[in-house]
Amino acid sequence: MELNQIRYFLNLADTLNFTEAAMRSGVSQPTLTRAIQRLEQELGGTLVYRDGKDSRLTALGRDIRSEFAAIAEGEQRVRALSLNRVRGRRETLTLGVVTTIAPALITGFVTHALRQLPMLELVLEPVTRDEAIERLLSGRIDGCFSSDAMDASAKIATIEMFRERLLLAMAQGHPLASQPMVSLADLSEQPYLDRLHCEFRTRVNDHLRARAIIMIPRLRSEREDLIQQAVAEGAGVCMLPERSAIVAGLTLRPVETLDLSRTIAFQSISGSGTAATLRQLRTLVERYAWS
């Protein structure tokens, strides 16, 4: 069994498409197909069902996928340690993080990435969603953790990480916290605190206005921590993505008829010309258990 076979299989498991897996692997499709066939012979079982254009992993393929991923990541770490020792240098990537994404959603992955890529050094910069694409295209950042990412260019590769609903945040012990869902009538009576960088602001206001509800904010700020702390201390309520609480003492509840969510994604410049370290980071993003 060769490491190339393992990498080919992992690319095929990710794409379930022989042509795309061959392109990712930098080989021809016949070469990749033969490598997978040799791997199946060595393991004594079929790894991939091939039904015309429809390919899917067999039970054996699913079982060995995580083991092969561990082998591939181990090889990356060995190469990184060797490179770091021999050349005495680190690879630096500058990543943007949209300011409305809670730190805990990103730092767990960052810790994982630094562990998997010992030669990696990361610089994290706060950005707004609207700034992300321009900074990527201009080369000011290498990648970005964005919300409801905009595909403004064919040069941008987007990896969707997870989705989160928009809920109403209130202090623990708030009278509405005992309800499984907040009615629009109850919402309209609450002191409202406005997160100025919230991507949902226009949609929420339009939704409420269409139902003759106008929320007049008692407090406005671009500071996520300030607004959330004020909510936790009982100054009012705010709309907040369900996984984005950064202070203690908050309770989140859905609002009737208000069904909004956002997608958190990683974006970077696509193509084989990107730095090897960035390609490795993208692979880690794809395989990370964001749930």
Automatic annotation (TrEMBL):
Transmembrane segment boundaries: 93-114
UniProt-listed Pfam families: HTH_1, LysR_substrate
Stretches assigned to the HTH lysR-type domain: 1-58
CDD domains: PBP2_LTTR_substrate
Family matches, as InterPro entries: LysR_HTH_N, LysR_subst-bd, WH-like_DNA-bd_sf, WH_DNA-bd_sf
Entry keyword set: DNA-binding, Membrane, Transcription, Transcription regulation, Transmembrane, Transmembrane helix
PROSITE patterns with a match to the protein in the record: HTH_LYSR
Keyword Membrane: yes
Coiled-coil ranges from the UniProt annotation: none
Gene3D superfamilies in alphabetical order: Periplasmic binding protein-like II (3.40.190.10), Winged helix-like DNA-binding domain superfamily/Winged helix DNA-binding domain (1.10.10.10)
Keyword Transmembrane annotated: yes
Family as reported in the entry's similarity comment: Belongs to the LysR transcriptional regulatory family.
UniProt name for this protein: LysR family transcriptional regulator
Source organism of this protein record: Devosia nitrariae
